[in-house]
Design brief:
Largest sheet: none
Oligomer: single chain
Number of strands: 0
Number of helices: 8
Strand content: under 5%
Radius of gyration: 15 Å
Shape: globular
Length: about 140
């Protein structure tokens, strides 16, 4: 039983560590570093985002920060960073679950990403998949 409590605390701490990196996300100048943060966020949120009520509450409390960081990446990042940002938005949509109309409305900027012809095809498809996931979940 004690091992389960230690594991739950470790998962919550990993989620907190990743979410703290979003505080200064826009100040990071290197696209490779921002992409690494997004990839780690995708991994941790997909594994631990709904692990417990405290993890979900932490994710819910920081969802605006995540959205603004991903929007920053979609506007200024490389194609790989933009793809990673779409993946993070997608997994947050799933983790937050149903009845999150405000979250769905806040992702309306993804429509411009899908329509932009200068974006890589993989990014446009990821944006479309993310938008669809946020609507259907």
């Amino acid at each position: 039983m004690q091992d389960a409590a230690v594991e739950a605390a470790r998962r919550l701490q990993q989620l907190q560590d990743v979410l703290e990196k979003f505080d200064e996300f826009g100040a990071e100048k290197r696209t490779v570093q921002r992409e690494a943060i997004l990839r780690k966020a995708f991994q941790v949120i997909s594994c631990y985002g709904t692990y417990s009520t405290s993890c979900w509450e932490l994710l819910y409390a920081n969802h605006e920060k995540i959205r603004s960081a991903c929007r920053h990446s979609l506007q200024r990042g490389s194609a790989a960073e933009q793809y990673a940002a779409c993946r993070v938005l997608q997994v947050v949509s799933v983790a937050l679950g149903a009845d999150e109309d405000d979250w769905n409305e806040s992702l309306s900027f993804l429509s411009r990403t899908v329509d932009a012809t200068q974006r890589a095809v993989a990014v446009r498809m990821a944006a479309l998949r993310t938008r669809t996931t946020s609507v259907l979940v």
